[in-house]
Amino acid sequence: TGVYFQLDPSASANWRAITGNGVILQDSDTGVAGALDTWYRLRIRRAFVGGFEVAEFYINGTLVFTNLLNIPTASLMVGLKYDGGTTDNTRTQVDFFRLRVDGLSR
Predict the structure, then answer these.
(1) Among candidate residues 11, 31, 28, 8, the one with its CA nearest the CA of residue 19
(2) What's the pLDDT at 22?
(3) Alpha-carbon gap, residue 59 to 50, rounded angstroms
(4) Separation in Å, CA 5 to CA 2, 35, 39, 43, 50
(5) Would you say residue 11 has pLDDT above 80?
(6) How many angstroms separate the CA atoms of 34 and 31, rounded?
(7) Neighbours of 56 (CB within 10 A)
(8) Cβ neighbourhood burial of 16 (10 Å; 0-12, 13-18, 19+)
(9) 39: nearest Cα among 97, 92, 86
Protein backbone atom coordinates (compact mmCIF):
# COMPACT_ATOMS: atom_id res chain seq x y z
CA THR A 1 0.00 0.00 0.00
CA GLY A 2 1.33 3.42 -0.85
CA VAL A 3 2.23 6.03 -3.42
CA TYR A 4 5.95 6.26 -4.19
CA PHE A 5 8.83 6.40 -6.67
CA GLN A 6 11.03 3.36 -7.23
CA LEU A 7 14.36 3.01 -9.00
CA ASP A 8 15.61 -0.55 -9.37
CA PRO A 9 18.31 -0.83 -12.06
CA SER A 10 18.04 -4.64 -12.03
CA ALA A 11 14.42 -4.34 -13.25
CA SER A 12 14.42 -1.11 -15.31
CA ALA A 13 16.70 1.83 -16.08
CA ASN A 14 13.76 4.19 -15.57
CA TRP A 15 12.11 5.66 -12.50
CA ARG A 16 8.85 3.84 -11.71
CA ALA A 17 5.64 5.44 -10.37
CA ILE A 18 3.99 3.07 -7.89
CA THR A 19 0.48 3.19 -6.42
CA GLY A 20 -1.06 0.43 -4.35
CA ASN A 21 -4.34 0.22 -2.48
CA GLY A 22 -3.60 -2.89 -0.45
CA VAL A 23 -5.09 -5.20 -3.09
CA ILE A 24 -3.48 -4.21 -6.39
CA LEU A 25 -0.06 -2.66 -7.00
CA GLN A 26 0.16 -0.44 -10.10
CA ASP A 27 3.77 -0.21 -11.38
CA SER A 28 4.15 2.39 -14.16
CA ASP A 29 7.20 3.45 -16.18
CA THR A 30 7.79 7.22 -16.04
CA GLY A 31 10.03 7.16 -19.12
CA VAL A 32 12.76 8.99 -17.17
CA ALA A 33 16.06 7.15 -16.80
CA GLY A 34 17.83 7.15 -13.45
CA ALA A 35 21.57 7.79 -13.34
CA LEU A 36 24.21 7.34 -10.67
CA ASP A 37 25.77 10.41 -9.05
CA THR A 38 22.77 12.54 -10.03
CA TRP A 39 20.49 14.65 -7.84
CA TYR A 40 16.75 14.32 -8.46
CA ARG A 41 13.89 16.44 -7.20
CA LEU A 42 11.02 13.99 -6.74
CA ARG A 43 7.48 15.15 -5.98
CA ILE A 44 4.21 13.31 -5.59
CA ARG A 45 1.00 15.30 -5.50
CA ARG A 46 -2.36 13.79 -4.61
CA ALA A 47 -5.16 15.80 -6.20
CA PHE A 48 -8.72 15.63 -7.49
CA VAL A 49 -9.02 15.97 -11.26
CA GLY A 50 -12.39 15.64 -12.97
CA GLY A 51 -13.92 14.14 -9.82
CA PHE A 52 -11.24 11.46 -9.50
CA GLU A 53 -8.41 11.27 -6.99
CA VAL A 54 -5.08 11.02 -8.82
CA ALA A 55 -1.41 10.78 -7.96
CA GLU A 56 0.81 13.09 -10.01
CA PHE A 57 4.50 12.17 -10.19
CA TYR A 58 7.05 14.92 -10.91
CA ILE A 59 10.78 14.57 -11.56
CA ASN A 60 12.85 17.76 -11.49
CA GLY A 61 9.69 19.87 -11.73
CA THR A 62 8.23 18.09 -14.76
CA LEU A 63 5.03 16.04 -14.57
CA VAL A 64 6.11 12.59 -15.79
CA PHE A 65 3.10 10.45 -14.90
CA THR A 66 -0.47 10.78 -13.63
CA ASN A 67 -2.15 7.73 -12.16
CA LEU A 68 -5.77 7.33 -11.11
CA LEU A 69 -5.58 3.57 -10.56
CA ASN A 70 -5.27 1.91 -7.15
CA ILE A 71 -4.88 5.11 -5.13
CA PRO A 72 -4.87 4.23 -1.41
CA THR A 73 -7.89 5.48 0.53
CA ALA A 74 -6.46 4.81 3.99
CA SER A 75 -4.18 7.18 5.88
CA LEU A 76 -0.55 6.78 4.89
CA MET A 77 2.69 7.36 6.76
CA VAL A 78 5.41 9.46 5.18
CA GLY A 79 8.86 7.98 4.88
CA LEU A 80 11.99 7.35 2.85
CA LYS A 81 13.50 3.96 2.15
CA TYR A 82 16.79 2.99 0.59
CA ASP A 83 17.67 -0.60 -0.21
CA GLY A 84 21.20 -0.90 -1.56
CA GLY A 85 20.90 -4.62 -2.13
CA THR A 86 24.27 -6.33 -2.24
CA THR A 87 26.17 -3.28 -3.51
CA ASP A 88 28.23 -1.88 -0.65
CA ASN A 89 29.50 1.22 -2.49
CA THR A 90 26.09 2.73 -3.28
CA ARG A 91 24.60 5.49 -1.17
CA THR A 92 21.65 7.83 -1.16
CA GLN A 93 21.69 11.39 0.11
CA VAL A 94 18.50 13.23 1.00
CA ASP A 95 19.04 16.97 0.92
CA PHE A 96 15.51 18.17 1.68
CA PHE A 97 12.16 16.65 2.57
CA ARG A 98 8.85 18.53 2.83
CA LEU A 99 5.31 17.43 3.57
CA ARG A 100 2.51 19.87 2.79
CA VAL A 101 -1.09 19.12 3.68
CA ASP A 102 -3.88 21.33 2.36
CA GLY A 103 -7.59 21.41 3.11
CA LEU A 104 -7.54 20.32 6.74
CA SER A 105 -10.42 21.33 8.96
CA ARG A 106 -10.98 21.19 12.71
Answers:
(1) 28
(2) 86
(3) 23
(4) 10, 14, 14, 9, 24
(5) yes
(6) 10
(7) 18
(8) buried
(9) 92
